[in-house]
Amino acid sequence: MENFDPADLHAAIERAYIVVWQAGRLRATQAQTVEDYLAHERSGGVYSADNRHPFHRLNADRRFLLIAARDLLRALYKIGEADRIPEDLAGHIEILRNTSEHWDEESGRSKRKFAAAGGENPHSHRWGPAGTTLGELLDVETLVTLTQRIYDELVAIEEGHTRAVSSAEPVPPSTGAGSR
User: How much is the pLDDT for 136?
Assistant: First the structure.
């Protein structure tokens, strides 16, 4: 990582943070959805359009995680660090984000890529003691562990760059013509 714009590095750090944060939010929503479901079942309720909110929140947090992960890929690419995420994982992130966005295209390019990657249901969302899997292709715990490491490494790079810039010799103010 020789030449980079510090703002782009900061953007990559921010996006890595967002992925980890959003994965935590997804886990919390999963737990809340189970609680809501069990309480609803105990009360003998039937899910109607009015009370499906736990599932809507779950889908929203799933989508937000996919968007955040795709944004991280873009930010890493911009600073020349795209290889920090293995190609197969990056491909799965992109495929799932695209199938989420293009949910209405039953036979579109996104669905064909998903099927070629070995998936059957891009909207599948499984979770339990073994972890969370989105769209049959993306293990969330693997993504989080890797992203946390990327975040830590990028922060160290940023801190090293900041120290190097702040310890550089100060430039004396100009005293020549045109100085104020």
Answer: 93
Cα 92 to chain centroid, rounded: 12
- Could you tell me the residue ranges of all domains in the chain? 6-165
Residue 128, φ and ψ in degrees, nearest 5: 175, -165
Round to whole Å and give the CA distance between 3 and 21: 28
Pairing type for strands 131-134 and 138-139 reads antiparallel
Look at residue 36 in the predicted model and tell me its pLDDT.
85
User: ∠ at Cα 156 (151, 159), nearest 5°?
Assistant: 120
H-run or E-run covering 87: helix 87-101
Answer with the residue of higher pLDDT: 73 or 106.
73
Cα(1)–Cα(44) distance, rounded to whole angstroms?
58
Kindly report the number of other CB atoms within 10 A of residue 152's CB atom.
12
List the single range of 84-98, 123-137, 161-175 with lowest mean pLDDT: 161-175
pTM of the model: 0.84
